[in-house]
Amino acid sequence: MAVFDTDLIFSWSPWEYEMMMKGVQHKEIDRYDFMAQSALAREGAHRAKRPRLHQIFDAKKARRRLETGIKEEEEEIKRMIALNRTFQGFQPDFRKKGGS
């Protein structure tokens, strides 16, 4: 935690202090997660015969997902609404095999 002002810390309510400490712990967990992912990427690059940058991290793909992610979600929602309208009132007709 990068707050060194004791007056500021003591002015927080217990709930605010607890949330700040939880945030610090989440930041530490994220740091360890990043280190684990970095270690896996390094190991993969080390063991590969001909490592390519996009095999470790594909920046183009990440940027494309970031840009199109929202658009694709909106399109998916529109498709689901249209599908629900199409099947509204649909009653399947189950018949036994063999005729009657």
Which features characterize this protein?
100 residues, mainly alpha, 4 helices, 72% helix, coiled coil
Write structural notes for this entry.
- With 100 residues, the chain is mostly helical.
- The chain has two domains: 10-51; 53-85.
- Helix content is 72%, strand content 0%.
- It is built from four helices and no strands.
- The model has no long low-confidence stretch (mean pLDDT 82).
- Keywords: Coiled coil.
- Residues 56-83 form a coiled coil.
What are the SSEs and their pairings?
Layout: H1 6-11, H2 14-47, H3 53-56, H4 59-86
Coiled coil: 56-83
Keywords: Coiled coil
Brief rundown of the structure:
Keywords: Coiled coil. By secondary structure, this protein is mainly α. It has helices at residues 6-11, 14-47, 53-56, 59-86.
